[in-house]
């Protein structure tokens, strides 16, 4: 059928009501958002953002309401989609922006693709990877993997992807979203090593929309975390402890979930796998820890500083 591109959409969307089908690859995926309120009578108040791209650039795509339980788990990073009968809306200005793996990619930030059950009823088709043709010009998923030895030089809030062997995982903890609110964030701390430094990655992992992965992080698993943000204390000296925290677009993968993921082709991932083959499993097992209370960042040594 006659296709359109994201670049053409941006130029012509105001003058059209119906749009030609789109062929895009998913580059980023946000966590699922629940926006239900007691006074609003919505059956499925869910929303999820994806960043999708074709040869012309990248744009946000929003999955609404009952399409979320139907499609959210099937649409993964790297999935190729054929979209028909979608709507175009002006972008929501306050949403989070993932950092693209390809810094040269053009971003269409003024509009977003809206997928709904009606007005119009969107048709979504997943194209199997073996049927994707090179002449469609769809971009590959690119990552920004770093090693532990590179982390100390990175600025606060820098976005990166990491892979490591888990040596510690803490219990799940809760933090209030707002001071007197009823809602909580669920998170846990983990340490992972990659052989490039004596220090581990310290990871603050908030529960994303992958409970099956979040609950099964354990020592000796290979952990991949994408779209992590660097957190460093800017007030103290630069030698203070640095850690990584999840963002709205973070994805977490553990042993058993890596097969077929786009990052398996990345050079730093391959280097890490080579390093693990040189390690003795028994030696690493002796150094692993699970559970317990993990106060971090550590409080000062004396009460005066505290």
From TrEMBL:
Pfam families: RADX
Domain of life: Eukaryota
Gene Ontology MF annotations: single-stranded DNA binding
PANTHER family in alphabetical order: RPA-RELATED PROTEIN RADX
Protein name, as recorded: RADX protein
Organism: Dromas ardeola
């Amino acid at each position: 059928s006659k296709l359109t591109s994201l670049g053409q959409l941006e130029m012509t969307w105001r003058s059209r009501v119906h749009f030609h089908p789109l062929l895009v690859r998913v580059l980023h995926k946000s966590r699922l958002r629940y926006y239900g309120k007691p006074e609003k009578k919505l059956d499925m108040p869910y929303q999820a953002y994806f960043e999708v791209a074709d040869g012309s650039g990248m744009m946000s795509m929003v999955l609404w309401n009952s399409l979320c339980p139907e499609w959210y788990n099937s649409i993964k990073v790297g999935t190729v989609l054929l979209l028909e009968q979608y709507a175009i809306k002006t972008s929501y200005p306050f949403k989070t922006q993932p950092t693209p793996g390809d810094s040269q990619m053009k971003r269409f930030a003024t509009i977003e693709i809206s997928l709904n059950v009606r007005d119009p009823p969107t048709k979504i088709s997943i194209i199997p990877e073996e049927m994707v043709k090179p002449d469609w010009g769809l971009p590959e998923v690119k990552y920004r993997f770093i090693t532990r030895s590179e982390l100390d030089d990175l600025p606060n809030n820098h976005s990166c992807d990491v892979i490591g062997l888990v040596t510690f995982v803490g219990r799940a903890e809760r933090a209030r979203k707002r001071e007197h609110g009823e809602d909580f964030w669920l998170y846990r701390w983990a340490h992972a090593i990659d052989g490039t430094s004596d220090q581990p990655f310290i990871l603050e992992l908030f529960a994303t929309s992958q409970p099956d992965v979040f609950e099964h992080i354990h020592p000796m698993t290979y952990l991949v975390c994408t779209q992590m943000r660097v957190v460093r204390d800017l007030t103290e000296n630069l030698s203070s402890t640095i850690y990584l925290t999840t963002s709205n677009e973070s994805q977490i993968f553990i042993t058993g979930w890596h097969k077929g993921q786009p990052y398996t082709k990345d050079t730093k991932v391959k280097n890490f796998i080579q390093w693990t083959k040189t390690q003795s499993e028994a030696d690493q097992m002796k150094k692993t820890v699970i559970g317990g209370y993990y106060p971090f960042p550590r409080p000062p040594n004396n009460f005066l500083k505290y």
